[in-house]
Structures are given as structure tokens and as C-alpha cells.
Design brief:
single chain, Immunoglobulin-like, 3 domains, 5-stranded mixed sheet, 17% strand
Length: 352
């Protein structure tokens, strides 16, 4: 029976994903609910690298549209003008051979188009890739896991997960964020469409990218390289904040976990189960590094790499049976009793 229920849940999830895909293809807005992912518009860039990439993309689209229009127009004209008519004989029409002008045109024009696209693309690639971080740049390390993102700020002493917080960059002194991209397991790809293009995240190799968001907000991206069964549910949230708000977030994240005497028994229950083997809660004996750092868990908007909003109900469901929500994820069901589950959830809810 358990296997039948699991298969039914998988089929239900598949139907939901097909429904979401159909809505996206039809241009229907997705509801703001857990599991419904907002689609970012790549043609509305809000960062210098994304804007330069968008400009090249628009140029390529315009050139391709012109080529399509010319070729389709000539083809349509030929079909209509030279179609078979009543009374036509089967004689072959006059043929054109050895026209140097025509051959030169269909050789030189495509070469010029390709040359223009190559040169423009090379200029943008060099501009984005060779940018040097200014003295006030923020540096962060992004680590891809199956199937969640870890974010480390070495100079700030902060480690968090799923949500990358960066300062708003603009005005007289831009403050870009330079990212070092690494993988803990398989190949991933870091892509936040409105902030920069895709950059691969490869095991045993460090790649780099940078962003300088010009607008505050929550920008959603995704892993763009198939990395396993939950690849589609490996969302990225980039939280862009004005400098004062970002500095406040940094100060809060640097603090150790809240030690609330009112939940001392719940804290002890959490430290007695196997969660501590994978997760860190700074200021306690929990020092696992396999899973996300939970020190400030409740300061995040999402759980399970964006699959769920961070509510007490969703947190309880996630801890109770992660496989029912994100099949194949590497977090096992701990088979906690209701009392243990209530205690663990109660303690985690204090970690703000």
C-alpha cells in the first residue's frame, strides 16, 4: 500500500508540473503559492552583465528576423508567381548559371552577418568576464549541492542556504557582488536571468561571475544544468536589499543561534536526534556540514530550495517526510514520534 500511495503522489506531482508548464506556454500567470514558480523575464535585465547579454540577444533576434522575413518573402513570392497555371507546358524555365553578382551576394552577406555577431559577442564576453572587482565589492562563494544552494561570505563570516542576499548597487559608488561558483557533487549551472547569464558549476573547478543589481527585490533563478531527479526544484533566490537593510541582515546573521530558555527541552530534543549529523546550528553542538546551516533558519522565506514557503506547517511536513515533498532528495525521513517532531519544530522556529 505504501508503494501505491507513493506512486500516486508522484503521478499527482507530474500532473501538477504539466499543468504549470501548460500555463506558462499559454502565457497564463502562475499563482503565488508553494510550488508555483515565478518566471523571470530575460528581456528585462536589472544588472550590467544581464543588460549587455540582453542587448546582444536582441541584436541577434533582429538579424534573424530580417533574414527570415527576406527568405520567407522571396519563397512566398516564388510560390505565387511561378505556380503552375492552366495551359502551362512542362518546359523548364530559363536557368541562371555563373552569376558572379548573385554568388558574391550570398557568400559575402552571410559572412558579414556572422562576423558582426562574433565581434559583438566577443566584446560582451570580454567586458563581462574581464571585469575587475572594485575595493568595495562583496565577495561570496556559491556551492551547488543535490539539490540546494549554499552561500558563504568569507569576509563576513556568514554561511546560509537557498537565499543569496546582496546589496543594491547603484548611485555614485556601485557595489557589485562577485561570486565564486563551486560544486559539492555533480555539474550544476547558476542562472538568475535578470542578473546575469548561465555559468556552469563544476566539481573540482571554480568558476566566477558577478552581478550589480540596480533594483531591490527577490529575483528567482534555477539550476540550468540537469543534475538529477530534483533538478527542476533547485531554485535560487537572490534577495537584493538597500545597503542599510543588507547591513542589518549581515549583523543578524553573524549572531549565534538564539538561546531561548523557554524551549530548552525542545533544544535538547533536537540535539539528541540525527539532525545534528548533517546540519549546523552555531552556538550548539550541532556541527554537521552535509546539509544547510540552520542557525537562522526562520529568517528565510523558503524551505527545501524554494519548494515550500517557510511556515510552521510546511516546516513540520518537511521534517516529517522530505521524500513526500521532494522525492529523491538526500534528506531522509527521521521517523520521529509526534512528540519528538513537535519538539524539533518548536526549537527550529526560534532560530531567527
Amino acid at each position: 500500500m505504501r508503494g501505491i500511495r507513493r506512486e500516486a503522489k508522484r503521478q499527482e506531482q507530474m500532473i501538477r508540473r504539466l499543468t504549470v508548464l501548460t500555463m506558462v506556454c499559454a502565457g497564463v500567470a502562475l499563482p503565488d503559492a508553494p510550488g508555483a514558480h515565478r518566471i523571470e523575464n530575460i528581456f528585462r535585465p536589472l544588472s550590467t552583465p544581464a543588460r549587455e547579454i540582453s542587448d546582444v540577444s536582441i541584436l541577434a533576434v533582429i538579424i534573424c528576423a530580417v533574414i527570415f522575413t527576406v527568405v520567407a518573402g522571396l519563397l512566398t513570392y516564388a510560390i505565387i508567381r511561378y505556380r503552375r497555371r492552366p495551359g502551362d507546358n512542362d518546359a523548364e524555365p530559363p536557368q541562371v548559371y555563373g552569376s558572379n553578382q548573385i554568388e558574391a551576394a550570398w557568400t559575402v552577406i552571410p559572412l558579414l552577418i556572422v562576423f558582426v555577431l562574433i565581434m559583438v559577442s566577443a566584446r560582451v564576453i570580454a567586458s563581462v568576464q574581464n571585469a575587475k572587482p572594485p575595493a568595495n565589492a562583496l565577495h561570496a562563494t556559491v556551492i551547488g549541492h543535490q539539490w540546494w544552494w549554499e552561500f558563504r561570505y568569507p569576509s563576513l563570516g556568514i554561511t546560509t542556504a537557498d537565499e543569496l542576499h546582496v546589496p543594491l548597487s547603484g548611485g555614485a559608488q556601485p557595489e557589485p557582488t562577485f561570486l565564486k561558483l563551486e560544486s559539492a557533487d555533480v555539474a550544476h549551472s547558476f542562472w538568475v536571468p535578470r542578473l546575469n547569464g548561465k555559468t556552469d558549476v563544476i566539481p573540482n573547478r571554480a568558476n566566477e561571475m558577478w552581478i550589480d543589481p540596480h533594483e531591490a527585490g527577490d529575483f528567482i533563478g534555477n539550476c540550468a544544468e540537469y543534475c538529477g531527479t530534483q533538478h527542476a526544484n533547485m531554485l535560487i533566490h537572490v534577495i537584493v536589499q538597500p545597503k542599510p537593510e543588507f547591513d542589518k541582515w549581515v549583523a543578524e546573521q553573524r549572531l549565534p543561534a538564539v538561546d531561548n530558555p523557554a524551549v530548552a527541552a525542545d533544544k535538547q530534543a533536537f540535539l539528541s536526534v540525527s539532525c545534528v549529523n548533517c546540519h549546523t546550528v552555531r552556538g550548539t553542538s550541532a556541527a554537521g556540514v552535509f546539509g544547510p546551516d540552520l542557525t537562522h533558519l526562520m529568517s528565510r522565506k523558503n524551505l527545501a530550495s524554494g519548494v515550500l514557503t517557510n511556515t510552521p506547517e510546511n516546516l513540520r511536513a518537511w521534517i516529517k517526510d522530505p521524500q513526500a515533498i521532494k522525492p529523491g532528495c538526500l534528506m531522509p525521513a527521521m521517523h520521529l514520534t509526534d512528540t519528538e517532531l513537535d519538539s524539533v519544530v518548536a526549537y527550529l522556529r526560534t532560530l531567527k
